[in-house]
Amino acid sequence: LSVPITTYCPEKDKALDLTFINAEEAFKSKKTSDLLRALVVYNLCSINFLVENNAKLMKLFRGLLGERLFVYFMKKTFYGHFVAG
């Protein structure tokens, strides 16, 4: 099974380069806010305390923030980064 390294993009009428050799090409479809969110989320995920205690921390913050604000925060950070749609 082979996977092509380019994908046709009809909106731009040219193939997208998916090799990541050229960073500008690889990330041109992303907004700066998406890249900043990715940077923040990945940095938070590198903190062992947060990873090891995520369930407890989520329960704590859900209680402190309330359901609506907690869901909003999650959609703007972790959920929004890792879950499509």
Automatic annotation (TrEMBL):
It catalyses: L-proline + a quinone = (S)-1-pyrroline-5-carboxylate + a quinol + H(+). Its EC number is 1.5.5.2. One of its GO terms (biological process) is L-proline catabolic process to L-glutamate. InterPro entries: Proline_oxidase. It comes from the Eukaryota. Converts proline to delta-1-pyrroline-5-carboxylate. PANTHER family: PROLINE DEHYDROGENASE 1, MITOCHONDRIAL, PROLINE OXIDASE. This is Proline dehydrogenase. The lineage of its organism: Eukaryota, Metazoa, Ecdysozoa, Arthropoda, Hexapoda.
